[in-house]
Amino acid sequence: MKATKKQLALIHIAKAELERCGFDDTCYRDLLRELFGVESSRDLRSDQVDRLLREFRRLGWDRDRVDRGPRVAEPKPRPPRDGDDVITPRQQQAIDALREFLGWSPRGLQKFCKDRLKFWWPQSRRDGQKLLYALLAIGSKQLLRAARTLHPEDLTEWEEDFVFGAGGAVEELEQFVERRNRRGQRRMPAVSTLKLIEIITTRSRTCLYQDIGP
User: Fold this and answer.
1) CB atoms within 10 A of CB 28
2) For residue 84, which of 116, 129, 121 has the smallest C-alpha distance?
3) Is residue 83 part of a domain?
4) What pTM, to 2 d.p., does this model score?
5) Could you give the maximum distance between any two Cα atoms of the chain, in Å?
6) 46 or 23, which is more confident?
7) Whether the Cβ atoms of residue 99 and residue 134 lie closer than 8 Å to each other
8) Distance CA 76, CA 133 (A)
9) How many independent structural domains does the chain possess?
10) Among 78, 100, 128, where does a domain finish?
11) Residue range of the domain that includes 51
12) Model confidence over 57-108: pLDDT tens digits?
């Protein structure tokens, strides 16, 4: 039996909520093709809609909130799941900065998430941390090479200390690369990836970008 109007409306409600977490129309269309081989929700059967809504719930959509209807009082924050919570804006900015630094397209990053990390897009802090670690694991040597091309005379005193000082970006990345070669060592570097990429892209005299992504 074909999907009902009520089911289709529920799909669009869920999609609109997930869009706030980065699940855009491209992700949605890819999900339809991957699960059902269709381009539009109008082509779904009723049982397929149920499966799609279960997938939306796995991605973070709260069906119970829709069933309860609008609340009069200010809603209380939903407690984190298993000590987790939604991805932070800072994590998202760092992910975007690393993606652009590596020369990946948004679609390439989505494919990487699906193939390597088994989620369509990071929805939680834990997902964001996993993706950041994976991107740094891939790009850490390139980022380190780029940082070493910086000329101290082109930097402010603060930037020079941030990049080359004791415990600075270069030292942190060197330790990260070294730890990656040791089994079980998965600690993220403390250096601000956003700030380092900003300094590299504005101060470097060399061409940094290489298309090495998926």
Assistant:
1) 20
2) 129
3) no
4) 0.51
5) 70
6) 46
7) no
8) 32
9) 2
10) 78
11) 5-78
12) 877 777 665 544 444 344 344 444 544 578 888 888 888 888 888 888 888 8
